[in-house]
Specification:
This protein has 180 residues and is of the alpha+beta class. It is built from four helices and eleven strands. A hairpin with a 2-residue loop joins strand 1 and strand 2. The longest helix has 19 residues.
Length: 180
């Protein structure tokens, strides 16, 4: 889908506000909203329109037992106040030649959590960090500035810090928390 299409964005925002956007589609849209504040404003606009309609209706007494049924359903949810992203959900997007990124979470402050999949032979140039960055090598092997890091190794770069040329001769999977 082309998520930059204004008509699609408006339709998804309306479905989100109505509660009809569910499952993986809802979680995907929440990740898109986290990365694009304009989507959140679209949802707010739809909520205001829909709330005005709701105020025009007479109150309805809910059926007996509904509150208990809702409470049981909430208790059955595995995560409350957060979200789950399953391994087959989310999109791998080209980040650099030979490197794909799968965003897991991002926030308005500019930090994110993502997986990076490096193909054998991939290289990432030397760069500085405006925010702290944490990198955990999940699988494979990388070299940073001549030092080798393997699965299970952890790298921390302070805000304002930098690291040397990053390359992977074998391919690697990295879990990185830092700049978006």
């Amino acid at each position: 889908m082309k998520y930059d299409d204004p008509d699609l964005q408006d339709m998804l925002a309306a479905e989100y506000a109505l509660g009809t956007l569910t499952g993986a589609a809802r979680r995907r849209f929440e990740r898109l909203m986290a990365a694009d504040p304009a989507l959140g404003r679209l949802v707010e606009a739809w909520e205001q329109r829909l709330n005005a309609l709701g105020g025009a209706l007479p109150p309805v007494e809910p059926p007996p037992g509904l509150k208990l049924a809702i409470e049981r359903r909430i208790a059955d949810e595995p995560i409350q106040g957060g979200f789950v992203l399953r391994r087959d959900e989310g999109d791998w997007i080209a980040f650099a030649p030979g490197i794909d990124r799968k965003m897991l979470n991002s926030n308005p402050a500019g930090s994110s959590t993502a997986l990076y999949r490096l193909s054998p032979g991939s290289i990432l140039d030397i760069h500085e960090h405006d925010l702290e960055e944490e990198c955990y090598v999940v699988d494979g092997e990388i070299e940073v500035g001549g030092a080798t890091f393997r699965a299970g190794d952890y790298i921390f770069v302070r805000r304002g810090g930098a690291h040397g040329l990053l390359r992977s001769r074998t391919g690697a999977l990295l879990f990185i928390r830092g700049e978006a």
